[in-house]
Target: Acyl-coenzyme A thioesterase THEM4
Amino acid sequence: MHLVLRSCGRTAARLACRAAPRRGPQALACQRAWLGSTLSPASSTTPGYYFQASVHQSKQAKDYSLPNSSWSPDMMTQFNKYMEMSKDKTWKKLPSYRDILDHMPERMRQEHEEERSEESRMFLRNLDEEGKGFEYVMFLNWSEKRMACVAQLGPYLEGPPGFVHGGSIATILDSVLGGCAMSLLGHVMTANLNINYKTPVPLGSVVLAESKLDKLEGRKVFVSGHVRSVDGETLHAEATGLFIQLASQKTHPPPECSK
Model:
């Protein structure tokens, strides 16, 4: 999924800042349009691509992180659990649309509407039939600097017979680690992703991927995470990641992050 984030980040920055100068007030305004300032969880906006998306949802775009008929009972149980935890705003559900333009603020979306492509779609989303590939929903815990992703892995993701392809697990981990960094700090790029595979994931099962922001060293962002069965009994994979904040878009770190 962070493969999605990286691509979206590039496209968003290109569309938003194409005509802006490299320096001066317009350049600063361009950066703020996507990153905002460092705010508390109760604020209406917060740094990071996903929070921009959650604030500026398109009225017409479909949110693919909502339940559909392909979701299994396990998927629904986990979704409802995190939605319940979101009531006190400790956790926040992050929307996911088909097109990068639908994640933009309305004004910017209108300005670039002519660039919309009917053929393109966000990676991992909108297969012709629901439930065949990735079905997922992400939740962010700002105060704890954590992200959780509930994912149902469909039959198009098969590797060894009856099990999920290892690349699909890597995609989930890249997404949930990178998504955590991006949601908290703004635009980042993956520098390194190290994965240890522990137990194969049965095809069609639901897993819980979790990540946390560990530390910052200048522009270096260190994040760790894992993929477990929804009952917590089976560790499928664990990972550490190094992400780099873009120099022109660096934000202040969340409290107690810097080292």
About this structure: The domain at 2-111+121-249 is CATH 3.10.129.10 (Thiol Ester Dehydrase; Chain A).
